[in-house]
Amino acid sequence: MAASGSVPVLAVAGHLGAGKTTLLNHLLRNSRGVRIGALVNDFGAVNIDAMLIAGQVDAMASLSNGCICCAVDADEAADMLGKLAAVKPRLDLIVVEASGVAEPSALARTLATADDSRYHYAGLVLMVDAVEFARGDLGHSVRVADLVVLNKADQVSADELAAVTAKVRELNPRVPVLPTEFGRVDPALLIDVPERAPRAGQLSLDELLWDTHDHDHHEHAAYQSVEFTTDRALDPRRLMDFLRDRPAGLYRAKGFIDFGAAGSGRKFLLQLVGRSLRFSRRRWDSAEQRATTLVLIGTDMCADTVRSALQDCVSAEPPDEQAILGVLRYAD
Description:
By secondary structure, the protein is of the alpha/beta class.
């Protein structure tokens, strides 16, 4: 189980030319204070992708002679991720950009099974070329994705984009689908932007770029945020059922949960990204009102359905001693 201070590792996969490096470059240029490390996995002796992002990333490692999920020894990849996770000042996110020939399920398995408390797997983003979608077999890749980014959405008609989206939904009914242009995904969809005190009298380069460039340059693909608050304790079993059978389009969830007596008087910090689920036990402050406060982020979600499903998680009767065990499996 990952430690609460471990660095999230996000995998970005997709066919050659789908826009993986474009997405990574976009995140680096518009990080808004997020410190990003990258493990670039170009397939070939000359690592062109690493050259493209050099100078923009906070820390970088590169595997230039093979694919992270097959040709490169898993221990080597784990060692490189561990070194990136140990960088000081601490990184907020590590992005693994897979080669265009990497098998997404194998990549996800390699990252998810790594045993290192310094970092933890935080999901798979699958880049799909909306123009070339019909030419590739993405069936298995879509099924293992935590977020599907339909890149180059501006280059197809509305009907064609709807057809691509429908095909993705057919393969994976619950996965969030995000149409984009030039890989413009808001970093806040992928990770919490840290609150860091700005240096007095000085703006960072990305802040300057953000403030001075045209709005269209920074227009991000839209996503939703749904809030849920209750002062009644949640039933652990019902909440775990909700998380296992989550609403379509839900990608992230975060916040504090009150399980009442089932949680032995502790509050639980929930962090959900795709299939990656973690809880951290905290103490309530003496003056803090005990309540559950959650924010759920995704695409094309029905806010009323999400809130209703969470309302059904409110405890109707005192839980038994075994109720919390499902939560503790994912607790640090």
